[in-house]
Amino acid sequence: MQRLRIVLNGTVQGVGFRPFVYRTAKDLGLSGFILNDTSGVTIEVEGAREKIDFFLKRLHTEKPPLAHIFYEETEFLEPAGYDEFSIRESESSGTPEVLILPDISTCADCERELLDPSDRRYLYPFINCTNCGPRFTIIERLPYDRPNTTMKEFLMCPECKREYTTPEDRRFHAQPNACPICGPEVFLTDPEGKSLGRGNDAIKGVVSLLLEGGIIGLKGIGGFHLICNALDDGAVNTLRRRKRRSLKPFAVMFRGISELAEYTLPTVLEESILLSPARPIVLVKRKGSLLESSAPGLERIGAFLPYSPLHLLLLSETSFPLVATSGNLSDEPIVKDNDEALERLRGLADAFIMHNRPIRRRCDDSVVKVVAGLPQIIRRSRGYVPLPLRLPFRLKRKVLALGGHEKNTVSIGMDDRIIPSQHIGDMETPESMENLEAIVNDLCSLYSFEPEVVVHDLHPRYPTARWAFKNFPHKAVGLQHHHAHILSCMAEHGLSGNVTGIAWDGTGYGEDGTLWGGEFLNSRLDGFERLFHFRHIILIGGERAVREPRRVALSILFDLFGENIPDSMNHITNEFNDTELAILYRAYTDRINSPPSSSAGRLFDAVSSITGLLQVCDYEAQAAMMLEDRYDPSVSDHYDYSVEGGVIDWRPLFHGIIEEVHRERIPSRFINTLAVIAADIAGRCGNERACLSGGVFQNDPLTERTVAELVKKGFRVFTHRNIPSNDGGISIGQAVYGGMIDI
């Protein structure tokens, strides 16, 4: 007889791991116990050595599909004389190290029961089991047990309790376990909160309102959606008007892959992502002009499938897909509470379908796009958070990283892992900063985390930087934006040493006080050197130029021709009257509220204006997305450029664009030129490895061509997959930096 103690860390709570271990030990005739604690799970098995060896093998080869073991410690001890194998009461003492599972979409078994008239949970919108359901959005503290979740107020009926306490049952220790007798319920209200129905009547009421063109506020897993009939252009445009979102794309939820295929052209890879347990929004090509009102002027639409029982029930009752966009006003956090919805979504929704299961933390939908043939997470949130990024090295200290100004996330780093938060959004409003502060406090509380250093973006006027100075005056450290981008890519791939970092985006504050965004860096974990960058563009009017591609194009025309702009560019100069042109030229020459920028993103803006595609943006990256849609892979040539010192001169490129005879080729040749520049300049930087980061590398043809050009020159190329290349990944790079520098 021997006794083995096994300590496991990873996603091993809330995934059916304990009943799996129980059944395996019983099957092998082993005695002992398993318990959850704040470090993961502890197992002791006692019996013949041969049986213990088989147990260890099955632990890894037969574990539940959602279980992931990141750390394992084993120790043989003197036999204790256990009579049987048992599941012990969880322990809550100690520093939390266990990994919390993300919210998981409804599994096939639960979906089958949901729609089975003979099942006791027929049409019950909170059906779940050990393999699916909410996790991250309901847990209040570790370990992950029902008293530590928002389900603690729902006392299980005898039948649910039997399932919950039976190791052989699929719902054994499924913490959100409930049924129509004992669990949460849905209800429909008018905008004032007056009841319009409960349970299945509420769902039927929603369907009727949707058929009439209504807009509904729906409380989901991590917050509210605003939903309407995606085929009703009037309803979609009403939602746009109310939400103050005139052209920015809306996501559309489809009943299943077959309905999706009626309106879009998903690839096999895109279908696999749509069907994954995370059920993210995936950018797929539309069929012709179908669903045009949901994504005006764009080829791709954000599509996703139902991930909660409530979504499944609604779509099973309708004959049309649903627009399902975040329940908020622009730049504000997603709404999560019932009273909050009645207050903040007043005037946006014609009715609300709510429920009485509290949401502990806001969590928006995730977004994924296939870039250069591989999935790239654009927004990392529901379904992925809070799974950690594991590092092949250990951080020297505990780090809190506050991210950037747009698409913000925060991260905490400790030991060999970084835990990023859910998507927070742009830091444009006081409500956004309040949400960021709440998420920081929540992460630190959940993991009993006290930072030793706090890293923020170098821009001194960002609200996150000011918050760091105010709350952690002796721990705050600034980090340059684009180096943080490259560090996030290095961290994702476990790289150390020197790499050539190609960081291209819209804007980032540079160490010289100018706006960077088209950078070639020699990067390492604790520092960098700026080697090359694009020639400066003068942003006439500062922030206005970021929103108006016509101003960026005008600045480039002033650079090329002074005031003698050729008649072929009248479509740009005609955007302004003579007085405005004179004022703008003076602002350009005298640098009046017109900062210099090396941004690659602004080059896309200029090209979109010169080609007549877009003069004023309705949302970020609109110009780049429109150019991407017009890329023709059969076009292989490119424009000229020049390099002097450390500056890449785009003037030959724009002379070529202005003189272009076949104007439909401009987007393709422009993107090809950027790819050729990337490979050429990287070859002058002296490293064999290249990391691509920044929002510009969400562009599929640009990334594909850039990778191909770099590989042709013998580079090992690293791009983002699980961490956003946009500013949603900045906090990852900041956490690495804060954990590795010498202080």
Give an account of the 3D structure.
The chain is α/β, with parallel strands linked by helices and 743 residues long. It has 4 domains: 2-87, Alpha-Beta Plaits, CATH 3.30.70.100; 186-355, DHBP synthase (Alpha-Beta Complex); 367-497 and 724-740, Nucleotidyltransferase, domain 5 (2-Layer Sandwich); 533-718, ATPase, nucleotide binding domain (Nucleotidyltransferase, domain 5, 2-Layer Sandwich), CATH 3.30.420. It is built from 23 helices and 31 strands. Strands 7-6-14-8-9-13-10-12-11-15-16 form an 11-stranded mixed beta sheet, with helices on both faces. The longest helix has 18 residues, at 666-683. It is globular, with a radius of gyration of 27 Å. The model has no long low-confidence stretch (mean pLDDT 94).
Mean pLDDT: 94
Overall geometric form:
globular
Number of strands: 31
Strand order of the largest sheet: 7-6-14-8-9-13-10-12-11-15-16
Write the layout of secondary structure elements.
Layout: E1 2-11, H1 17-28, E2 31-37, E3 40-47, H2 49-61, E4 68-77, E5 85-87, H3 108-114, H4 158-165, E6 186-189, E7 195-198, H5 199-211, E8 216-219, E9 224-229, H6 233-243, E10 252-253, H7 257-263, H8 268-274, E11 281-285, E12 300-304, H9 309-317, E13 322-326, H10 338-344, E14 351-355, E15 367-371, E16 374-379, E17 389-390, E18 399-401, E19 411-414, E20 417-420, H11 430-446, E21 453-457, H12 463-471, E22 476-479, H13 481-492, E23 499-509, E24 515-524, E25 527-534, E26 537-538, H14 543-547, H15 549-561, H16 570-573, H17 578-590, E27 596-597, H18 600-610, H19 622-629, E28 642-644, E29 647-649, H20 651-659, H21 666-683, E30 689-693, H22 700-712, E31 716-718, H23 730-740
Parallel strand pairs: 2-5, 8-14, 10-12, 11-15, 18-21, 21-22, 23-30, 25-29, 30-31
Antiparallel strand pairs: 1-3, 1-4, 2-3, 6-7, 6-14, 8-9, 9-13, 10-13, 11-12, 15-16, 17-20, 18-19, 19-20, 23-24, 24-25, 26-27, 28-29
Helix pairs in contact: 1-2, 5-9, 13-23, 15-18, 18-19, 21-22
